[in-house]
Each structure stands twice: as C-alpha cells, then as structure tokens.
C-alpha cells in the first residue's frame, strides 16, 4: 500500500472549515459533476459511485492538510492511468474542484494552496504529470488558471 504523506508543513485548513463531515455535501456535488463530464466519467470507468465519493473524500482531506491515514491513492490512480486520463481531463477536474470548494465557502487563498498541493502530487494521485512547475503550495494559482509563481 502506497500511502501519501505530506513532506512539507501545510496548515490543517480542513478543520478551519469544520472538518470532513461538513464537506460531505460538497463531495457529493463534486462527484455528481465529475460523473456528468464524459471525459472524467470515462476515466472513472470500473469504479462505483461510492468508490469515487470515497476517493474525493480522501482527496479533499489530503489537499486541505488532513490526510486520511489509511487511504491508498494508487488504486484509483492506476484506474485513471489505465483509462488514459489526459492533462485536459485533469484540468477539468481542477476546475470542478475549485468551483465546489468555492461554493462550500472555502476562501480563494486556501483553494490555491489545495490546488498547488494537488499539482505537486499529481503523478501520485492522478497519474498525470503537470506542465507547470510548482515549488510551494503557497505560490498560488488564480481562478483564471494562470500560474502566479514568479518568473
């Protein structure tokens, strides 16, 4: 089992927003939206809706600084890779994640940190190597998708 651990200090923003239980409706909304997008639904082929919800719970907990200790991302990552997830599909997943977190009341700065954490661990979690380089989870990615890191 390949459990991901955070190798840098990140604030536990999950608790700041009331914990994972408060995010359950947002996670259900995220899963429903993901499964409506054909390219994302294709990548989750072979997984039940419950498995996608469990994956999204673990993903949000990980991204907001409170990883679920016994969750193994490699199982879903292998399915995503097998179903040929693309960089465009990854970006669509990011867009949906950002939208759902905004609707859940997460402030933009914390969403930027979460997205950068995902970018830093994208190969291990999603199986996609991103093109932009992210050195710090605090560098930020704005909602227009442009990199904010200094050039």
Describe this structure in words.
With 151 residues, the protein is mostly helical. Helix 6 runs antiparallel to helix 7 (108-120). The longest helix is centred in the first third of the chain and has 17 residues, at 20-36. The chain contains eight helices and no strands. The chain has one domain (20-125): Orthogonal Bundle (Globin-like), CATH 1.10.490.10.
Class by alpha and beta content = mainly alpha
> Between the first and last Cα atoms, what is the distance in angstroms?
38 Å
- Please identify, by name, the CATH architecture: Orthogonal Bundle
Number of helices: 8
Counted beta strands: 0
- The H-and-E topology, N to C, reads as HHHHHHHH
The CATH topology corresponds to: Globin-like
Number of domains as seen in the coordinates: 1
CATH class: Mainly Alpha
Radius of gyration: 14 Å
CATH homologous superfamily designation: Globins
Beta content: under 5%
Give a summary of the structure in a few sentences:
The protein has 151 residues and is mostly helical.
How would the blueprint of this fold be written?
Elements: H1 13-16, H2 20-36, H3 38-43, H4 49-63, H5 73-82, H6 87-103, H7 108-120, H8 122-125
